[in-house]
Specification:
With about 180 residues, the chain is of the alpha+beta class. It is built from 6 helices and 10 strands.
Length: about 180
Amino acid sequence: MKHLLALLLFVGISFQTIAKDDYSLVVYDTYEDYKAGKGQSLYEFMGFDWTLGVLHLYYKVERKGKDELRKNVTNLYGFTVGDQFYRIVKGKPYRVLMEGKLVYYENGLAHLNMLVGKEDEGLVEQGDWHVISENLNSDVVEFPSEKAKKTFGERADLQGLFECVEKLKKRKTEKVRDCVKENN
């Protein structure tokens, strides 16, 4: 009886964990499509590859089927996997993490790797892929950088953000992210 209870508890916890994961995939051709919620639903995100600057997303065709297709999304506006939004800029995916006084993005490839279970958050550090923009449809600027300071640094409402980043000894992703959280 004890073993049966333990098994039921384990199955219940496992099912609850699985049920929470949302890998629904929707792609958006344009910013206007994204804002209007008019994306193309591709059912379920399975993985991706980014080779020679071309980003393909793999998705399941049928609910119970094993068939998988891929879609080139390099020239689209963006896509969502569950509640995570990725904007594609010059062929690179950036995950939108915060919207407020400005929009803050991180390395989308690292976040996609975490989704498919290949890597942990440490890979977010790869490359200079932390960017900010005025809004979801404006140009992105590497952050922190002199260009970001020139573009946004004069705004009084963002002074705290730039001061916070300046104080960092190492500009690790989690520290930069904390500065954005506190000042956005």
